[in-house]
Design a protein that fits this description.
- By secondary structure, this protein is mainly alpha-helical.
- It is built from 2 helices and no strands.
- It has a domain at 11-55.
- 62% of the residues lie in helices and 0% in strands.
- The chain is elongated and about 45 Å long.
């Protein structure tokens, strides 16, 4: 799904939020085993999507009208 996130976070908040998400992704990746890890892959994917949304907020152009 390619939804455009509503910028409900400031750029600074999005940076901090993405850092926290990345830490959680790393923790989940460490918990992956050979079997019964599908739920971890799903969670990682969801969190990576959220990181992408944060990136869009961080790098969004500010609308400047002249």
């Amino acid at each position: 799904m390619n939804l455009r996130p509503k910028p409900n976070l400031s750029k600074d908040e999005a940076i901090v939020h993405m850092q926290v998400l990345r830490r959680e992704i790393n923790i989940l990746k460490e918990r992956i085993t050979m079997h019964d890890s599908g739920h971890l892959y799903t969670a990682i994917n969801v969190l990576e999507e959220r990181c992408g949304e944060c990136m869009q907020i961080i790098f969004a152009r500010d609308d400047i009208s002249h």
